[in-house]
Amino acid sequence: MRSQAFRVSCFLVLTTWLLCFVCSAQQDSGPPAMIANLVDPDAGMVTISKRVDEVNLLFTATDSKGRFVTDLEASDVQVFDNRLPPEGIRSFQKESDLPLRVGLVIDLSESITDRFKFEKKAAATFLKKSLRPTDQAFIVGFNQKVQLFQDFTGNPAVLGQAVQRMKAGGNTSFYDAVVFACHKLQEQPRDHSTRKVLILITDGQDTSSKGILADAEQAAARAEASIFALSTNDLKYDDYPKGEAVLELLTRYAGGQILRARDADQLTKAFAQVEQALRSQYVLAYKPADFTPDGSFRTIELRPNKPKLRIQCRRGYYAPREAH
């Protein structure tokens, strides 16, 4: 009995000491350190969970001729989070080697039948050439249905086999496919240890989704991924296809770009540009000012301090919502 009372006393002393330590730490470091579930009544153990309010921003920079610039320093850019400069810059990394998590989303509708053979070949070649041992990818195909042909794997041969199993035909549920793929990317830990990328091979047209464009846009923002759209639209004529506008909206706010991919040569070149972009990314980590963990959308603006530079990065993110 005395031994049990001693253990309880020690537990209460330890708990009190931890509470004092946490309160002191919060006074020193401000609101970003949030403590939850200090004591687990079921396990009888003390646990501390800490949320770090840090944003990792991936971006690329190009010059006036569209060539990637890979020698920038942190002082060459200014970041604004919800129109405010950050409380502090935590790190700046050139040509990031963080592992990639890639979602390849391929249009399988009837309209791409004549291009499907070279699309599959180019996609398989890209995966084989681009993925390193630390990278992983998944394959999604869509017509009137959205199908996961291959879950996350780092094996290019398995991914290539999944691409070859695809068959074209049917309508187009593009928005649903984007939402599905973004949710897959969100399965990855939100610890800034990876780079998330979505590659779309499509004309952006939608004929059978249950969702709408706004659903795809919101899913893309929550995934915090760079989006590259390999557009199969034919732009030889004056009219501007609706699907092209859709792809423009999705890529503009996700820090990616639209690349021409109408024929085999264009598609091969587009994949090469994506690969180069991924190898030319910077990672800027910062602590936002005036941060509230309320689940709201916060805008991001990255301004170059050098003339004639064009910066491509996502335009915002959803703040984590603090559990109560």
Mind explaining what this structure looks like?
With 324 residues, the chain is α/β, with parallel strands linked by helices. The protein has three domains: 2-50, no CATH class; 55-95 and 281-318, no CATH class; 100-278, Rossmann fold. Helices cover 31% and strands 27% of the residues. It contains seven helices and 17 strands. It has helices spanning 2-29, 116-130, 156-164, 174-186, 213-223, 242-252, 264-278, and strands spanning 35-36, 39-40, 45-46, 49-50, 55-62, 77-81, 88-93, 100-107, 136-142, 146-153, 195-202, 226-231, 257-260, 282-287, 297-304, 310-313, 316-318. The strands form five sheets. The chain has a six-stranded mixed beta sheet, with helices on both faces. A hairpin with a 3-residue loop joins strand 9 (136-142) and strand 10. Helix 2 (116-130) packs parallel to helix 7 (264-278). The radius of gyration is 23 Å and the shape is globular.
Strand order of the largest sheet: 10-9-8-11-12-13
Number of helices: 7
Helix proportion range: 25-40%
**What is the subunit organization of this protein?**
single chain
Structural class, by secondary structure, is: alpha/beta
CATH architecture of the largest domain: 3-Layer(aba) Sandwich
Strand content: 25-35%
CATH fold topology of the largest domain: Rossmann fold
